[in-house]
């Protein structure tokens, strides 16, 4: 209760400052230069992966399997750049969870995927019936298991059930990616509501900016505390690399790099609303994110399995170090930038976790 009261007092105190800042230009730029193109890239990557999986099933070979895995890597990267937008179209019909069921507590989702593969449940090879199943069996992590999990060598066998299930997953992913893009950019879409800020969802463009800053801050908290913190543990001997999403395919760190890139792109635009006296804050945000990326990106290119990478003392130390600039960037977005813009982020979806 005390925290809620302080939040309300702070919100009341900063309203005059926010009213003096022109938020609309940065909202327009964020939509036109970052959000909509990123969702278009996701839809494009999803369509390409559907094609690659279909070819793999009809023409199974080492080459078509490599192509499907490469397409999956592109898809994971494209999703990683929009993962921070847990708002609007991503919330409709559980689309976010359909795409990315993580964390998978107690591996319940994994067990469902394994059950479908073991039982060769033919209803999962039809995208329409797959869509009606658990969200855990139709998204990126389900496809990750199909392409790189135990038994994945069977995917190139003629008539492989595993391949047909994977192709069905890819089609459901494409459906959700295209529906989200449509719901963002349609005539009455979420982008239109953000541009209008006429009280339908947002009363002001400052509220839109506030929501976007909050989304970026939360993504960094997830990366720092969960994707890295929970995986690395308190020491190398306590590390649990299999908690990381996409560890099977070796894309765990590529996904994090994409997360950082998504936040960097959005944060750089939103920093354009800062008053001149606070403009250095945008540079500070970019600097911290750049430091984190410079550490993680070379490790993402390391061909070793993720478990072996985390077990390497030098790689472990570098990943642990990366949490520091990620934390610094989080504080810029969570505390410094909202204060400079006269905004209050309030509670986030991770409060209490």
Automatic annotation (TrEMBL):
<protein>
    <submittedName>
        <fullName>Peptidase M75, Imelysin</fullName>
    </submittedName>
</protein>
<dbReference type="GO" id="GO:0030313">
    <property type="term" value="C:cell envelope"/>
</dbReference>
<feature type="signal peptide">
    <location>
        <begin position="1"/>
        <end position="19"/>
    </location>
</feature>
<dbReference type="Pfam" id="PF09375">
    <property type="entry name" value="Peptidase_M75"/>
</dbReference>
<dbReference type="InterPro" id="IPR018976">
    <property type="entry name" value="Imelysin-like"/>
</dbReference>
<keyword id="KW-0732">Signal</keyword>
<dbReference type="InterPro" id="IPR034984">
    <property type="entry name" value="Imelysin-like_IPPA"/>
</dbReference>
<dbReference type="InterPro" id="IPR038352">
    <property type="entry name" value="Imelysin_sf"/>
</dbReference>
<feature type="domain" description="Imelysin-like">
    <location>
        <begin position="35"/>
        <end position="321"/>
    </location>
</feature>
């Amino acid at each position: 209760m005390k925290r809620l009261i302080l939040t309300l007092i702070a919100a009341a105190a900063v309203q005059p400052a926010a009213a003096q800042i022109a938020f609309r230009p940065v909202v327009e730029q964020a939509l036109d230069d970052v959000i909509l193109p990123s969702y278009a890239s996701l839809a494009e990557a999803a369509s390409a992966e559907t094609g690659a999986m279909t070819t793999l099933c009809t023409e199974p070979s080492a080459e078509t399997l490599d192509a499907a895995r490469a397409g999956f890597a592109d898809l994971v990267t494209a999703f990683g750049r929009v993962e921070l937008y847990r708002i609007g179209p991503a919330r409709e019909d559980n689309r976010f969870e359909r795409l990315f069921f993580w964390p998978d507590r107690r591996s319940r989702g994994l067990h469902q995927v394994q059950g479908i593969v073991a039982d060769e449940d033919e209803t999962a090879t039809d995208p329409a019936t797959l869509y009606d199943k658990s969200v855990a069996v139709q998204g990126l992590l389900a496809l990750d298991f199909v392409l790189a999990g135990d038994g994945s060598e069977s995917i190139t066998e003629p008539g492989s059930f595993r391949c047909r299930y994977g192709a069905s997953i890819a089609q459901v992913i494409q459906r959700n990616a295209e529906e989200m893009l449509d719901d963002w950019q349609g005539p009455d879409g979420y982008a239109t509501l953000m541009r209008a800020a006429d009280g339908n969802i947002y009363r002001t463009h400052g509220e839109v900016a506030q929501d976007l800053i909050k989304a970026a801050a939360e993504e960094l908290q997830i990366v720092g505390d969960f994707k890295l913190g929970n995986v690395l543990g308190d020491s190398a001997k306590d590390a649990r690399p299999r908690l990381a999403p996409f560890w099977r395919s070796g894309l765990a760190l590529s996904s994090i790099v994409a997360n950082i890139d998504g936040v960097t792109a959005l944060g750089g635009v939103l920093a354009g609303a800062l008053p001149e006296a606070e403009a250095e804050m945008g540079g500070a945000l970019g600097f911290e994110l750049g430091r984190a990326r410079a550490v993680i990106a070379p490790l993402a290119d390391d061909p070793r399995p993720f478990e072996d990478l985390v077990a390497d003392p030098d790689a472990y130390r570098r990943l642990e170090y990366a949490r520091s600039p990620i934390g610094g960037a989080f504080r810029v977005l969570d505390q410094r930038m909202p204060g400079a813009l006269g905004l209050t982020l309030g509670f986030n979806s991770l409060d209490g976790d």
